[in-house]
Predict the 3D structure of the following.
Amino acid sequence: MHEFRAGSLLMQKALSGVSGVKVDVYDMGWPSKMVDGARVDDSSLLDTADAVLIYSDGEKGHPALQGERMKVIDALAARGAGLGFAHYAVDVAPGVPGDAFYRWLGGHYERNWSVNPMWKPDFSKFPNHPITRGVGPFATYDEWYFNMRWAPEAALKGRFTPILVATPSDEVRKGPYVSPRGPYDHIVAASGRQETMMWAFERPDGGRSFGFTGGHTHANWGDVNQRRVMLNALLWMAKVDVPAGGVKDNITAEDLTKNLDEKPPRK
């Protein structure tokens, strides 16, 4: 769970066969270098990036919200770089962080407004969009967040495309959620409503962004369709043509067991 480093390295390997694409992975929260025996930020490593995916912790631990890093992301956006945020990295507080995510992503997870149950949405219909090329129906049991806090409608009009959409059952709406456990009256009251769990956002600055709320359970990257929708999105936000049949890769079951974080022994 929350194998952000292993998941990023898996995506790097999956894209290794795409001509003209170079993927660098920076772990431990941010691109950095060693100076006098200490690790310090080196945001210059992002200066030439066509796109950046942040797959990480969120809320107070969100790497993009530390120190002066929001200015770095704003600068990336201003020059039209792609921005992607996956799982916990879509989770930020309202106010300054939330307003930044309205600019960067079109919306975000908001604690006590959005919810994070473990459930198995049925993704069976997809829009006509480069991100969905070659993606077939799939369903993975995961912590799929929904009920995002969206930017004002005027900011989304003509720029926002739901990619992964499903309808939670009433049982899912009633919880329990992972945290806080709920239920929340406004979630229960929306019975029967479709929810968006992945979306594309074409920003006014000319850049492309996407949000993906799954990705809690590393083993689910073994589903070729879940993996393909993410790989397609990575190319799309970098303004690389997505193949007609979507990204094909050589990921194996063994690859899913590599680069995992060390776990404390079970008691």
User: Anything to note?
Assistant: The helical segments are 4-14, 69-78, 96-105, 153-156, 170-174, 185-188, 224-237.
